[in-house]
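Technical annex, item 7. During the second reporting period the consortium partners agreed on a shared format for inverse folding records so that results from different sites could be compared directly. Each record opens with the tokenized structure and is followed by the designed sequence. A conforming record, contributed by the partner at site C, is shown below for reference.
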């Protein structure tokens, strides 16, 4: 079968490899779609994602497909089921796993990061991370359940309630997911800040965003109960804290560079009693994400800007394909 193998930093090779066989607790998935995100860009460039990827490795931690075989102990899915896979595999034995914070696991492994993922025609995963999807959810949409789950995890770390006014900073795929998620979680007003006027207008029209700000020219009032930063730059992190009113919560979702810092007025952290919250990956969020897609509360297909082939993946990662908002790879039918 065909596999796009990362063989070194910024090096891919299309290889003909043997289809993997399942262990007793594993599922073999024929990949339908694999999503590409900033983590893949980092791994391609030799930087760590949620964990280190050591070549040769097949990336593709966001994926969907059809179950092709199951190990003898597997009972949660059967051959032919349409599924999506949570890439993150927790050890269950470390301090964090044993205190209900598995995302902070000291021994995290992940499909498409530390073991082969969806950028090949078939891959295996432990049955415990394989989730069936309902007929109403397309395989293309199902390939985005992993990033949706990261956003759902972020939202669950906040105390959300209908009276709140929220601001999302960042007009990428994740920011646009957060707009819809905050609405689905009942927040009555969601505003949106970015740098691409078309995306700001699109979110106003399609998702009912109230106010939009282009951060290159508009100032943002200090008026928000909830601010989600989904860019990862020092200036947007500063803007996120500055946009708060008293009692506000800030979700620092964007990923900065490892040594990045930003400044904030610490007197205001005291005087406004701010909560500043990080978010790492996506524990216990797949069921909610699938339900949000199935109920139509989340529309992801209109946010997918590119559908590409395995042969085009490298050009997406190295930037030759421009204006990518969200790309999914169609691996097989
Ligand atoms: N915490 C997690 O578990 C987790 C999971 C997934 C993604 N992320 C992070 O979330 C962030 C967003 O992800 P994405 O996939 O949407 O990334 P992306 O690169 O596709 O989007 C970033 C967006 O930010 C916008 N932007 C750039 N400068 C801006 C500015 N000054 N003001 C406002 N908007 C600006 C860009 O127009 C772009 O649309 C990234 O940093 C990503 O690494 C975190
Ligand atoms: Zn991802
Ligand atoms: Zn652990």
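Designed sequence (site C submission):
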């Amino acid at each position: 079968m065909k596999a796009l193998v990362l063989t070194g930093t910024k090096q891919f090779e299309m290889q003909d490899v043997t289809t993997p066989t399942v262990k007793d607790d594993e599922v073999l998935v024929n990949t339908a779609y694999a999503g590409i995100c900033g983590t893949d860009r980092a791994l391609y460039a030799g930087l760590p994602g949620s964990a280190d990827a050591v070549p040769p490795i097949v990336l593709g931690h966001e994926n969907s497909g059809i179950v092709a075989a199951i190990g003898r102990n597997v009972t949660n899915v059967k051959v032919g089921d349409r599924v999506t896979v949570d890439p993150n595999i927790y050890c269950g034995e470390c301090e964090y796993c044993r205190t209900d914070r598995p995302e902070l696991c000291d021994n995290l492994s992940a499909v498409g990061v530390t073991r082969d993922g969806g950028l090949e025609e078939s891959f295996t995963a432990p049955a415990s991370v394989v989730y069936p999807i309902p007929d109403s959810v397309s395989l293309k949409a199902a390939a985005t359940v992993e990033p949706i789950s990261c956003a759902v995890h972020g939202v669950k770390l906040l105390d959300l309630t209908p009276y709140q006014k929220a601001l999302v900073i960042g007009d990428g795929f994740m920011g646009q997911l957060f707009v819809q998620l905050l609405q689905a979680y009942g927040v009555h007003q969601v505003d949106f800040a970015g740098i691409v006027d078309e995306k700001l207008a699109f979110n106003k029209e399609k998702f009912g965003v109230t106010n939009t700000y282009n951060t290159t020219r508009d100032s943002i009032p200090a008026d928000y109960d909830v601010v989600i930063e989904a860019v990862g730059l020092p200036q947007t992190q500063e803007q996120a804290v500055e946009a708060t009113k008293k009692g506000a919560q800030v979700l620092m979702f964007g990923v900065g560079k490892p040594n990045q810092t930003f400044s904030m007025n610490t007197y205001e952290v005291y005087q406004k009693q701010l909560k500043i919250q990080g978010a790492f990956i996506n524990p216990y969020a797949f069921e909610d994400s699938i339900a949000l897609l199935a109920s139509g509360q989340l529309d992801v297909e209109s946010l997918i800007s590119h559908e590409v082939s395995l042969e085009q993946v490298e050009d997406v990662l190295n930037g030759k394909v421009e204006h990518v908002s969200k790309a999914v790879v169609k691996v097989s039918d």
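The radius of gyration is 20 Å. The first strand starts at residue 2 and ends at 8. All partners now use this format for quarterly exchanges.
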